[in-house]
Amino acid sequence: MTPLLEITKLTVSYDGTTPALHEANLTVAAGERVGLIGESGSGKSTLALAIAGLLPRTARVSGSIRWQQTDTVPRKGTDIGYVFQDPAGSLDPVMRIGAQLAEILRVLRGKQSQLDVPELLARVGFPDPEIIAARYPHQLSGGQKQRVAIACALAGQPRLLIADEATSALDTIVQAGIVRLLSRLTADTGSSLLFITHDLALASTLADRLVVMRNGRILEAGTPREIIEHPRHPYVASLVASHLALEGPTLLETQREPAQ
Amino acid sequence: MTAPLLSVHDLAKSFGGTRAVDKVSFDLAAGETLALAGLSGSGKSTVARMVMRLIEPDAGRIDFMGEDLTRHSGSALRARRRHIQMVFQDTNSSFNPRATVASALLDPLNTFDILPKPQRAHEVRHLLERVGLSPGLFDRSIHELSGGQRQRVAIARALASRPALIVLDEALSAVDASIRIDLLELLLDLQREQGISYLFIAHDLGMIRAIAHRTAILDAGRIAEIGPTQSIIAAPQTQIGQQLVAAAPRLFHVADQP
Amino acid sequence: MTSLRRFLSTGEARAGLAMLLPLIVLALLAPVLFPGDPMAIVGQPLLPPFQESALPLGTDRLGRDVLAQLVHGAQTSLLVGLAAALSALCIGAVIGTIAGFGGRVADEVLMRITEAFQTVPAFLLALAFVSVIGPTLASVVFAIALGAWPAPARVARAEVLSIREKDYVAAARVVGKRPLEIAFREILPNALPPVLALSSVIVASAILIEAALSFLGLGDPNRITWGGMIAEGRTVLRSASYLSIIPGIALVVAVLAVYLLGEGAAKARLSKRSYA
Fold it and tell me: Domain range spanning residue C198?
């Protein structure tokens, strides 16, 4: 598979001294789904923002980001689509959904987008796009808003979709629906996906490859099976062990006094 | 059988015409953990806050240690709060921005007049050790601590008055997974040592399964089903129960069956 | 960076301090620099400035030292300005906190009273109060505070209303704190920053209202004030305009300095937010 994105020794520092990201190497192949896993302060969002060119101007960056084996930087919108954690924060509260999407399509028309608003909305799983297009963001549920945010990110038909904790604020049932949607969309369009989450299990349900980060460094990368069955780094092992499964013995049972 | 520690009858609350909680009833025994599960908007947090009397119920009874809490107010209610404490989800907002570790933990000792005054600072250090924190954090500002440390302080604050019941409102939902296990073990240890009951509000069934003896699944303000956690997860009887179980993330679920 | 250093790094704060500090020092040193009664006659009347080295700013109609009056007047202006602003902020913060935290009835009653005060122009209110009570330093301070407290009260109330819903207030109830303790120990200290941001505007307007009252002869007659000096000079405005212009410049400098300090503080707060 041809690499779509190659990151070499990427180091990012916000305050000039402590790096938020330290010599990160990452390759995303065309059509590949990468799950980027890390807890708070791991640098996973910094990595995503760096790829999308969304770092604050004061941040110091070194290392290289190569896009499609050239030295060009990926363009926002048409090369990379970005879905943020808070869907309410990424939509304009006083604009109808349809108008927001139409605006994005208009701005990105340089790429001759063949998509129109109803089609985009249908693609993210709305059975009746016209009704949704006429609504304001506050009239939608959290899951619906996140679907719209995904539609916004897809408007430019990007080669790489970045979902930055895009399901973390949602209920598990809605979360599962969004994960299925992302999985289906990337399969249909052949675009790559960078799925960023703190939830190892969630990432393992959809990713071809998992990348685990901690304290600004990439610790380990591999297929979900490799990571889950044979974690090499002790932290990754503890992360796997901390998954609270619905099967097997529970903490409550292992800790319960026999006398009870 | 002895009377339950907490017994909630037909609790109801509406916000501006919509019924957030609709005739919810359940019992909680001493030393037991009952989980309230459900989607956001199912009313689980409203139930928790009504049990704490932070939200006034429209109707219903909250029998706690043999008395109806809804009948008390003012100083009578304050005196009873000693036995029923709470840990919140967001550690950023559940401490006064100006609080230090010491001031946060001295608050309950002072208001409930626990121990003679000179011993209270020592008790704070003891509480910190009990929840796995260094007593050296005594003078630190709460907001210098990490999220996991802050939640340990919140648990210590709830423990300080030696309550019979602690309401945990999504208390572990925002904590990193690697720390979550430690906190679950801490809560289980405390329950075994001190016989504390927990009302454990969460949306994550994996976490609920790890700590709760019984689970009630709330849907649109009503209890859809209630029973032993193991049987609810193994064989949910309602549609919402089945959906929740199906949606819980499992380690490589989809990747196994492409 | 500490908040003080951030504050001092703004040009507004530096300019404001450069103007206000000398005024404060002069006001504090007034009894040392110009001992004795500044109202005493020390030379020939209407001596223009820069004529005599002993009387650098000249004398007024009665032959009194203008510089001595100016320095003693700085005492009154700054004292009244600060005291009135402090009283207004205290009254406003307490009323706003009770309105925001005390429940619907307290809120309705206090906010209607606040609005009633806001509909009357602050200067008219002060004028009416001083003419009824009589012009003393305390009554002038209170009269100015009377017109200035509604703004901090409204800001405090809005802030308290939002803080009231935070979990740490619920947590304070859970650990058995009393409502008054929660309102004034947990909520008010966190509601203060935006209220204090109003202080520069209030101090500046208090200085101006005091000057206006004195100009109309409603200042404390036992103290020298800039407004009173301007009023004194009014009768000879054509022949000796410096008698009005000099205290006028002092007023402009004081008000501008306070305003610049407020701007500096606002800028410092903004830069803190953008770093966070």
Answer: 3-275
